[in-house]
Amino acid sequence: MRAQVLLCPTITAYGRLYCAPRRLHRYNSSSSSSQFLNLNLSRFSGALFFHMEQFQSGTGSSGKRGMVENLKRYGVISSKRVAQVMEALDRGLFVPVGSSAYVDTPVPIGYNATISAPHMHATCLQLLEDKLHPGMRALDVGSGTGYLTGCFALMVGAEGRVVGVDHIPELVDMSIKNIEKSVAASFLNKGSLSLHVGDGRKGWQEFAPYDAIHVGAAASEIPQPLLDQLKPGGRMVIPLGTYFQELKVIDKNEDGSIKVHTETSVRYVPLTSRVEQLGGF
Ligand code: SAH
Question: Among 95, 268, 277, 278, which is best to mutate for testing ligand 1, by the most ligand atoms less than 8 A from CB?
Fold first, then answer.
Protein backbone atom coordinates (compact mmCIF):
# COMPACT_ATOMS: atom_id res chain seq x y z
CA MET A 1 0.00 0.00 0.00
CA ARG A 2 1.19 3.46 -0.71
CA ALA A 3 -0.02 6.73 0.63
CA GLN A 4 -0.63 9.54 -1.80
CA VAL A 5 -0.62 12.95 -0.29
CA LEU A 6 -3.53 14.98 -1.55
CA LEU A 7 -4.61 18.50 -1.00
CA CYS A 8 -8.20 18.66 0.00
CA PRO A 9 -10.34 21.31 1.60
CA THR A 10 -11.49 20.33 5.03
CA ILE A 11 -12.44 21.90 8.29
CA THR A 12 -10.75 21.90 11.62
CA ALA A 13 -9.15 23.74 14.49
CA TYR A 14 -10.13 25.01 17.88
CA GLY A 15 -13.91 25.27 17.67
CA ARG A 16 -13.96 27.49 14.58
CA LEU A 17 -14.61 26.23 11.11
CA TYR A 18 -12.45 27.35 8.29
CA CYS A 19 -11.50 26.00 4.89
CA ALA A 20 -7.86 25.25 4.44
CA PRO A 21 -5.80 22.85 2.39
CA ARG A 22 -5.15 19.76 4.44
CA ARG A 23 -2.98 16.77 3.74
CA LEU A 24 -5.03 13.65 3.18
CA HIS A 25 -3.67 10.22 2.51
CA ARG A 26 -5.50 8.16 -0.07
CA TYR A 27 -5.32 4.43 0.16
CA ASN A 28 -3.68 2.74 -2.80
CA SER A 29 -4.28 -1.00 -2.74
CA SER A 30 -1.45 -2.00 -5.03
CA SER A 31 1.30 -1.71 -2.50
CA SER A 32 2.06 -4.02 0.43
CA SER A 33 3.18 -1.98 3.44
CA SER A 34 1.05 -2.31 6.57
CA GLN A 35 1.39 1.38 7.27
CA PHE A 36 -2.14 2.33 6.33
CA LEU A 37 -4.07 -0.64 7.62
CA ASN A 38 -6.70 -0.58 10.34
CA LEU A 39 -8.76 2.33 9.20
CA ASN A 40 -12.18 3.24 7.90
CA LEU A 41 -12.00 3.49 4.13
CA SER A 42 -15.11 5.68 3.91
CA ARG A 43 -13.51 8.27 6.09
CA PHE A 44 -10.09 7.61 4.68
CA SER A 45 -11.00 8.30 1.06
CA GLY A 46 -13.35 11.18 1.80
CA ALA A 47 -12.93 14.64 3.17
CA LEU A 48 -13.56 13.40 6.68
CA PHE A 49 -10.21 11.70 7.00
CA PHE A 50 -7.85 14.23 8.38
CA HIS A 51 -4.43 14.80 9.80
CA MET A 52 -4.13 16.66 13.03
CA GLU A 53 -0.83 18.35 12.37
CA GLN A 54 -1.37 20.96 15.00
CA PHE A 55 -1.46 18.28 17.71
CA GLN A 56 1.59 16.25 16.80
CA SER A 57 3.92 17.72 19.34
CA GLY A 58 4.80 15.47 22.24
CA THR A 59 2.56 13.41 24.45
CA GLY A 60 1.09 16.23 26.50
CA SER A 61 -2.54 16.78 27.26
CA SER A 62 -2.99 19.22 24.38
CA GLY A 63 -2.24 16.38 21.95
CA LYS A 64 -4.77 14.01 23.44
CA ARG A 65 -7.34 16.73 23.87
CA GLY A 66 -6.87 17.99 20.33
CA MET A 67 -7.22 14.48 18.93
CA VAL A 68 -10.46 13.93 20.81
CA GLU A 69 -11.82 17.38 19.96
CA ASN A 70 -11.29 16.70 16.26
CA LEU A 71 -12.94 13.29 16.50
CA LYS A 72 -15.92 14.97 18.17
CA ARG A 73 -16.00 17.76 15.62
CA TYR A 74 -16.05 15.28 12.73
CA GLY A 75 -18.87 13.31 14.37
CA VAL A 76 -16.82 10.19 15.07
CA ILE A 77 -17.23 10.60 18.84
CA SER A 78 -20.65 11.51 20.15
CA SER A 79 -20.47 9.92 23.60
CA LYS A 80 -19.05 11.80 26.56
CA ARG A 81 -17.69 8.56 28.06
CA VAL A 82 -15.84 7.66 24.87
CA ALA A 83 -14.35 11.14 24.73
CA GLN A 84 -13.31 10.88 28.38
CA VAL A 85 -11.54 7.53 28.05
CA MET A 86 -9.73 8.47 24.84
CA GLU A 87 -8.52 11.61 26.49
CA ALA A 88 -7.58 9.81 29.71
CA LEU A 89 -5.63 6.98 28.07
CA ASP A 90 -2.64 8.59 26.39
CA ARG A 91 -2.16 7.12 22.88
CA GLY A 92 1.37 8.51 23.11
CA LEU A 93 2.24 5.69 25.53
CA PHE A 94 1.09 3.05 23.03
CA VAL A 95 2.77 4.06 19.76
CA PRO A 96 6.45 3.39 19.01
CA VAL A 97 8.83 6.14 20.14
CA GLY A 98 9.11 8.83 17.50
CA SER A 99 5.70 8.10 15.91
CA SER A 100 2.99 10.70 15.66
CA ALA A 101 0.67 9.66 18.45
CA TYR A 102 -2.25 12.02 17.83
CA VAL A 103 -2.40 12.04 14.04
CA ASP A 104 -5.44 10.22 12.70
CA THR A 105 -3.58 7.39 11.09
CA PRO A 106 -2.61 3.80 11.87
CA VAL A 107 1.01 3.34 12.95
CA PRO A 108 3.14 0.22 12.33
CA ILE A 109 4.04 -1.57 15.58
CA GLY A 110 6.18 -4.36 14.11
CA TYR A 111 5.26 -8.00 13.36
CA ASN A 112 3.18 -6.87 10.34
CA ALA A 113 0.69 -5.20 12.64
CA THR A 114 -0.46 -1.64 13.27
CA ILE A 115 -2.09 0.29 16.05
CA SER A 116 -5.44 1.30 14.56
CA ALA A 117 -6.13 4.90 13.61
CA PRO A 118 -7.78 6.97 16.37
CA HIS A 119 -11.00 7.28 14.33
CA MET A 120 -11.19 3.48 14.16
CA HIS A 121 -10.71 3.08 17.92
CA ALA A 122 -13.32 5.78 18.47
CA THR A 123 -15.77 4.14 16.04
CA CYS A 124 -15.48 0.78 17.79
CA LEU A 125 -15.84 2.35 21.24
CA GLN A 126 -18.95 4.17 20.08
CA LEU A 127 -20.44 0.97 18.65
CA LEU A 128 -19.73 -0.95 21.85
CA GLU A 129 -20.44 1.78 24.36
CA ASP A 130 -23.73 0.30 25.57
CA LYS A 131 -21.96 -2.96 26.35
CA LEU A 132 -19.11 -1.30 28.23
CA HIS A 133 -20.89 -0.06 31.34
CA PRO A 134 -19.33 -0.62 34.77
CA GLY A 135 -19.37 -4.29 35.72
CA MET A 136 -19.62 -5.61 32.15
CA ARG A 137 -17.22 -7.99 30.40
CA ALA A 138 -15.26 -7.33 27.23
CA LEU A 139 -12.93 -9.36 25.00
CA ASP A 140 -10.44 -7.64 22.68
CA VAL A 141 -9.16 -10.06 20.02
CA GLY A 142 -5.94 -8.89 18.34
CA SER A 143 -5.19 -6.55 21.22
CA GLY A 144 -1.85 -5.39 19.73
CA THR A 145 -0.62 -2.37 21.67
CA GLY A 146 -3.37 -2.73 24.27
CA TYR A 147 -4.76 0.76 23.66
CA LEU A 148 -8.35 -0.27 23.02
CA THR A 149 -8.15 -2.97 25.70
CA GLY A 150 -7.13 -0.23 28.15
CA CYS A 151 -10.07 1.95 27.02
CA PHE A 152 -12.41 -0.98 27.69
CA ALA A 153 -10.94 -1.40 31.18
CA LEU A 154 -11.52 2.25 32.01
CA MET A 155 -15.14 1.96 30.86
CA VAL A 156 -16.14 -1.26 32.66
CA GLY A 157 -14.17 -0.37 35.79
CA ALA A 158 -12.80 -2.57 38.55
CA GLU A 159 -16.09 -4.51 38.86
CA GLY A 160 -15.93 -5.44 35.17
CA ARG A 161 -13.61 -7.82 33.33
CA VAL A 162 -11.53 -7.13 30.24
CA VAL A 163 -9.44 -9.69 28.38
CA GLY A 164 -7.03 -8.91 25.55
CA VAL A 165 -5.68 -11.70 23.34
CA ASP A 166 -2.95 -11.48 20.72
CA HIS A 167 -0.98 -14.31 19.14
CA ILE A 168 2.36 -12.45 19.05
CA PRO A 169 4.02 -12.86 22.48
CA GLU A 170 6.24 -9.78 21.95
CA LEU A 171 3.17 -7.63 21.33
CA VAL A 172 1.46 -8.96 24.44
CA ASP A 173 4.58 -8.15 26.50
CA MET A 174 4.67 -4.68 24.97
CA SER A 175 0.96 -4.10 25.62
CA ILE A 176 1.40 -5.02 29.27
CA LYS A 177 4.28 -2.52 29.58
CA ASN A 178 2.19 0.14 27.83
CA ILE A 179 -0.75 -0.39 30.17
CA GLU A 180 1.55 -0.37 33.20
CA LYS A 181 2.62 3.17 32.29
CA SER A 182 -0.95 4.34 31.80
CA VAL A 183 -3.99 5.29 33.85
CA ALA A 184 -5.31 1.75 33.28
CA ALA A 185 -2.42 0.22 35.27
CA SER A 186 -4.47 -0.32 38.43
CA PHE A 187 -6.92 -2.56 36.55
CA LEU A 188 -4.03 -4.75 35.44
CA ASN A 189 -2.64 -4.89 38.96
CA LYS A 190 -5.99 -5.67 40.57
CA GLY A 191 -6.82 -8.32 37.99
CA SER A 192 -9.89 -6.90 36.21
CA LEU A 193 -7.76 -6.50 33.07
CA SER A 194 -5.53 -9.21 31.65
CA LEU A 195 -3.62 -9.67 28.40
CA HIS A 196 -2.86 -13.13 27.03
CA VAL A 197 -0.98 -14.86 24.25
CA GLY A 198 -3.34 -17.02 22.22
CA ASP A 199 -5.18 -17.60 18.99
CA GLY A 200 -7.95 -15.04 19.25
CA ARG A 201 -10.08 -17.00 16.78
CA LYS A 202 -10.79 -19.29 19.74
CA GLY A 203 -11.77 -16.39 21.96
CA TRP A 204 -10.95 -16.67 25.66
CA GLN A 205 -13.28 -19.12 27.34
CA GLU A 206 -12.12 -18.45 30.92
CA PHE A 207 -14.16 -15.26 31.36
CA ALA A 208 -16.95 -15.87 28.83
CA PRO A 209 -19.67 -14.89 28.14
CA TYR A 210 -18.80 -11.32 27.11
CA ASP A 211 -21.09 -8.32 26.75
CA ALA A 212 -18.70 -6.82 24.19
CA ILE A 213 -16.31 -8.50 21.77
CA HIS A 214 -14.01 -6.45 19.58
CA VAL A 215 -11.90 -8.03 16.87
CA GLY A 216 -9.00 -5.86 15.73
CA ALA A 217 -8.07 -7.90 12.63
CA ALA A 218 -10.11 -8.92 9.58
CA ALA A 219 -11.57 -12.42 9.60
CA SER A 220 -12.64 -14.28 6.44
CA GLU A 221 -15.65 -15.54 8.40
CA ILE A 222 -16.99 -15.02 11.89
CA PRO A 223 -15.20 -17.48 14.20
CA GLN A 224 -17.83 -19.70 15.85
CA PRO A 225 -16.11 -19.65 19.29
CA LEU A 226 -16.51 -15.85 19.35
CA LEU A 227 -20.24 -16.15 18.60
CA ASP A 228 -20.51 -18.80 21.32
CA GLN A 229 -18.70 -16.58 23.83
CA LEU A 230 -20.95 -13.57 23.15
CA LYS A 231 -23.54 -13.09 25.89
CA PRO A 232 -27.23 -12.95 24.87
CA GLY A 233 -27.83 -9.20 24.62
CA GLY A 234 -24.15 -8.70 23.79
CA ARG A 235 -22.51 -7.13 20.76
CA MET A 236 -19.49 -8.02 18.63
CA VAL A 237 -17.68 -5.65 16.27
CA ILE A 238 -15.56 -7.46 13.68
CA PRO A 239 -14.02 -6.57 10.33
CA LEU A 240 -14.95 -9.25 7.79
CA GLY A 241 -13.41 -9.94 4.42
CA THR A 242 -10.06 -10.37 2.76
CA TYR A 243 -9.35 -7.73 0.14
CA PHE A 244 -12.71 -5.93 0.47
CA GLN A 245 -13.57 -5.66 4.11
CA GLU A 246 -16.57 -4.41 6.02
CA LEU A 247 -16.94 -3.66 9.69
CA LYS A 248 -19.80 -5.86 10.89
CA VAL A 249 -21.83 -5.29 14.02
CA ILE A 250 -23.29 -8.50 15.40
CA ASP A 251 -25.99 -8.37 18.06
CA LYS A 252 -26.96 -11.54 19.90
CA ASN A 253 -30.59 -11.40 20.94
CA GLU A 254 -31.79 -12.74 24.28
CA ASP A 255 -33.10 -15.89 22.52
CA GLY A 256 -29.62 -16.52 21.08
CA SER A 257 -30.49 -15.46 17.52
CA ILE A 258 -28.09 -13.18 15.69
CA LYS A 259 -28.63 -9.86 13.91
CA VAL A 260 -25.86 -8.49 11.69
CA HIS A 261 -25.44 -5.06 10.12
CA THR A 262 -22.64 -3.48 8.14
CA GLU A 263 -21.20 -0.31 9.58
CA THR A 264 -18.63 0.78 7.00
CA SER A 265 -15.81 -0.30 4.68
CA VAL A 266 -12.48 -0.79 6.38
CA ARG A 267 -8.95 -2.02 5.81
CA TYR A 268 -7.48 -4.16 8.60
CA VAL A 269 -4.60 -6.59 8.95
CA PRO A 270 -5.84 -10.20 8.66
CA LEU A 271 -6.98 -12.38 11.54
CA THR A 272 -4.78 -15.31 10.74
CA SER A 273 -2.19 -17.74 12.07
CA ARG A 274 1.02 -16.45 13.63
CA VAL A 275 3.10 -18.13 10.90
CA GLU A 276 1.12 -16.46 8.12
CA GLN A 277 1.27 -13.07 9.78
CA LEU A 278 5.00 -13.19 10.33
CA GLY A 279 5.55 -14.53 6.80
CA GLY A 280 4.18 -11.29 5.33
CA PHE A 281 0.98 -10.44 3.53
N1 SAH B 1 -6.22 -3.32 17.96
C2 SAH B 1 -4.80 -3.31 18.15
C3 SAH B 1 -4.00 -4.02 17.09
C4 SAH B 1 -4.55 -4.07 15.70
S5 SAH B 1 -3.48 -4.92 14.55
C6 SAH B 1 -4.29 -1.90 18.30
O7 SAH B 1 -4.93 -0.97 17.81
O8 SAH B 1 -3.23 -1.72 18.89
C9 SAH B 1 -4.22 -6.51 14.59
C10 SAH B 1 -3.68 -7.39 15.68
O11 SAH B 1 -4.30 -8.66 15.53
C12 SAH B 1 -2.18 -7.63 15.60
O13 SAH B 1 -1.60 -7.30 16.83
C14 SAH B 1 -2.06 -9.14 15.31
O15 SAH B 1 -0.94 -9.73 15.92
C16 SAH B 1 -3.37 -9.66 15.87
N17 SAH B 1 -3.83 -10.94 15.34
C18 SAH B 1 -3.96 -11.31 14.05
N19 SAH B 1 -4.43 -12.59 13.99
C20 SAH B 1 -4.61 -13.00 15.27
C21 SAH B 1 -5.06 -14.22 15.85
N22 SAH B 1 -5.42 -15.28 15.14
N23 SAH B 1 -5.12 -14.30 17.20
C24 SAH B 1 -4.73 -13.24 17.97
N25 SAH B 1 -4.28 -12.08 17.48
C26 SAH B 1 -4.23 -11.95 16.13
Answer: 277
